[in-house]
């Protein structure tokens, strides 16, 4: 039975080494970037968000080394930049933590935190969250998952931040490369109580729930066949690889991405070397 308090992908976390440089880079690709957020001293991190509907992308960087961000620092040291974890939307984090615990996964949390937000009119507010995590070692294909309950959605989904020069609207897929896609997809499916689905090219999809984006597990070779002509050298053999994003207009997305854009398989792609270790695939909405 699917989890009642977890309703699909909420946002993708892209770990970056230099937070401000990464924000400038994604802005050059046609995204509207939120003002920089700074998390608590315990978390020691900061972020920029790219707001879509109903989900978003988070550029996350370590500002001060803490025990809490040790896994993120380990990821950067081993893998480099790229998709490090995926958040699900939690209706109720406390109830969600109880649900996964009942399924045999010791939940971490729930934990409350917040970050200051500068609103479009210049006033200061706060974005408040309550999160819980699956055990850190339970990371299908090396991708950690957690769930996020938004207590102040109005300070996160700000209309002015949801309009992008590249026409980006929402996440369609999270691409994860794996040497054993079926095994890793089954692992994720068990964690979120979802049935996996085989695709024609041998990839395996895992619906995240509701109308939200799917996970797609596939080998690096399968990924290269899906998007020929796009260099994947910056990607590992196993881990978060890319994001498929629905756009209102492929021509607009191609123009916004400029020299980084590559037309491939009815999509506009930006290779991982040009997007902080993340393959971006723009498709028609």
Structural class by SSE content: alpha+beta
The second-level CATH architecture of the largest domain is Roll
Distance between the first and last residues' Cα: 30 Å
Tell me about the biggest sheet? 8 strands, mixed
Gross geometry: globular
From N to C, what is the helix and strand string?
EHEEEHEHEEEEHEEEHEHEEE
Portion in helices: 10-25%
Count of distinct strands: 16
Radius of gyration from CA coordinates: 18 Å
Poorly predicted residue ranges = none
Mean pLDDT: 96
Number of domains: 2
Q: Looking across the biggest beta sheet, what order are the strands in?
A: 2-3-4-1-5-8-7-6
Give a structural overview:
The chain has 285 residues and is of the alpha+beta class. It has 2 domains: 6-161, 2,3-Dihydroxybiphenyl 1,2-Dioxygenase, domain 1; 168-284, 2,3-Dihydroxybiphenyl 1,2-Dioxygenase, domain 1 (Roll). The chain contains 6 helices and 16 strands. The longest helix has 12 residues, at 181-192. The two termini are 30 Å apart.
């Amino acid at each position: 039975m699917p989890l009642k308090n977890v309703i699909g992908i909420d946002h993708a976390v892209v770990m970056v080494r230099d937070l401000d440089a990464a924000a400038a880079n994604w802005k050059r690709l046609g995204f509207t970037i939120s003002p920089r957020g700074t998390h608590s001293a315990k978390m020691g991190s900061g972020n920029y968000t790219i707001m879509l509907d109903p989900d978003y992308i988070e550029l996350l960087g370590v500002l001060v080394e803490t025990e809490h961000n040790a896994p993120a620092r380990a990821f950067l040291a081993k893998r480099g930049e790229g998709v490090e974890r995926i958040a699900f939307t939690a209706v109720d984090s406390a109830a969600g933590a109880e649900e996964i615990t009942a399924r045999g996964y010791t939940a971490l949390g729930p934990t409350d935190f917040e970050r200051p937000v500068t609103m479009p009119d210049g006033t200061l507010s706060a974005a408040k969250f309550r999160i819980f995590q699956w055990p850190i070692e339970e990371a299908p294909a090396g991708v950690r998952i957690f769930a996020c309950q938004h207590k102040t959605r109005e300070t996160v989904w700000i209309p002015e931040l949801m309009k992008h020069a590249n026409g980006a609207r929402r996440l369609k897929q999270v691409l994860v490369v794996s040497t054993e896609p079926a095994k890793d997809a089954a692992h994720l499916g068990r964690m979120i109580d979802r049935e996996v689905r085989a695709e024609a090219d041998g990839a395996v999809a895992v619906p995240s729930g509701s109308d939200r984006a799917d996970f797609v597990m596939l080998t690096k070779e399968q990924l290269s066949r899906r998007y020929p002509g796009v260099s994947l050298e910056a990607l590992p053999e196993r881990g978060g690889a890319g994001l498929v994003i629905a756009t209102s207009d492929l021509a607009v997305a191609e123009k916004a991405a400029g020299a980084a854009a590559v037309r491939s398989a009815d999509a506009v792609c930006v290779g991982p070397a040009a997007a902080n270790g993340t393959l971006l695939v723009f498709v028609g909405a």
